[in-house]
Amino acid sequence: MSNASRVLLSSLLLSGLLLSNPVYANGQQAILEQAVKSYEKGDYQTAYEKLNQLIAHGNTKAMNNMGVMYQDGKGVPQDNQKAFEWYLRAAQQGYAEAQFNVASMYANGKGVAQNDKQAVQWYRKAAEQNHVDAQVNLGYAYAHGKGVAKNEKQAAYWYQKAAEQGNAKAQFNLATLYSLGEGVEKDDKQAAYWYQKAAAQNHVASQLNLGYAYAHGKGVIQNNQQAAEWYQKAAEQGNAKAQFNLAILYANGFGVPQSDQLAFEWYQKAAKQGHEGAQVNLGYYYDYGTGVAPSNQQAFEWYQKAAQQGNAKAQFNLGTLYLLGRGVEKNQERAFEWYQKAAQQGHPTAQFRVARAYQSGAGVAKDEKKAFEWYQKAAEQNVVPAQIYMGLFYATGTFVTKDPDKAREWYKKAQQSLRENP
Asked: Strand ranges (DSSP E) for 61-109?
């Protein structure tokens, strides 16, 4: 499951101009509504005048909205410093929206020197007034120790506050804490509950994680059909991991009718976004003509993309294409290079191929010592031909001192490996 990221909301909440407002004495509400309408129409001069009229009467919402105008540069020259000053005036008088904006300016160093501690102080003031985005950001600050000592319990506390107000990001972050047991007791049911809440709001990472929960029965009854439905929702939003997982379900017919063609399509979508597992599988589909017409060249290209990301399976497959000259000109040296990369990551069959290359001098200078070392590594991972070679080496004294007992030992291991994996 992917470890999905907990994003600090760094963008300012600038919706104050568009929100409904309580009734103000002396007709301030009517004037504020006129300012809003003028702003929406692009009549920034009138909006500016109306806001100034309200500011003269100490209206904090007007002060905050004046800050918005300066930050956006609409009707006035863009000026983050003046925006900050207006936000601060309103914030100091207790207006939560402005307190959040002041915090965000400190967090991002806009109009004022960047200062995480000051950001936390202002987020807290707004959060204590039930400002949902401030609660999310304060939770994030505690979760990551930004401007305050790291405290996962406090992170969970503030995420919970925001989550109960319906904030999808807070619901996701809270679910993740329950999943990991950070700041709260580990509870897969609670994790699934909050992922479900956020997923229902179209939160893509929650949809992915809820799909995973259903696929593996974590906090919910295992249900491949539900897994497929949630993966599909996230996949349609462009999430590469969900696209990859959905492809696997189609490839195996788990929760959906088996379809190589649909598996291919979803692997392709994920692969184009750089998902290395999808790139390997897409290469395999082209290699063997599964769900698509076979193409050695396309297989080579996709294996290469994944191999360059360090994927051992792709490196092994790429080495095989070079060895056989499929989709690329035959080249034993390049084959050895890719086999070696995969072998160094512990790929068993690649280790056997590297051993063979060192023994025969195919693509690399002969080296009996290295050949023996790689045969041994592969044999220890139950590669049967390698185990047989190890038996042969000890039986004949090739590369090592002759030892019939060790020879028998390796032959027995080979027989056992065959029985376990016929």
From this structure: none
Nearest of 69, 13, 64, 23 to residue 46 by alpha carbon: 69
pLDDT tens-place string over residues 296-320: 999 999 999 999 999 999 999 999 9
According to DSSP H, which parts of 289-383 are helical? Answer: 296-308, 312-324, 332-344, 348-360, 368-380
Contact call for residues 242 and 234 (beta carbons, < 8 A): yes
d(CA 222, CA 231): 14
Condensed to tens digits (0 to 9), the pLDDT of residues 66-117 reads 999 999 999 999 999 999 999 999 999 999 999 999 999 999 999 999 999 9
Measured in degrees and rounded to the nearest 5, phi and psi for residue 364 equal: -160, 155
Task: State which amino acid sits at residue 103.
Answer: A
User: How far apart are the C-alpha atoms of 179 and 168, rounded to whole Å?
Assistant: 16
- For 390-411, write each residue's pLDDT tens digit: 999 999 999 899 999 999 999 9
Contact 392/398 with Cβ under 8 angstroms?
yes
Distance CA 145, CA 150 (A): 4
Question: CA-CA distance, 387 to 143, in Å (whole number)?
Answer: 50
Q: How far is CA 418 from CA 95, 384, 385, 411, in A?
A: 73, 7, 10, 11
What is the C-alpha to C-alpha distance for residues 226 and 111, in angstroms, rounded to an integer?
48
* pTM for this predicted structure: 0.87
Tokens matching residue 86? 């207006």
Nearest by Cα to 210 from 405, 180, 50, 194: 194
Give the separation between CA 62 and CA 16, rounded to whole angstroms.
Answer: 9
Helix-then-strand count for the chain, H and E: 22, 0
Cα–Cα distance, 73 to 56 (Å, whole number): 22
CA gap 230, 1 in Å, rounded: 14
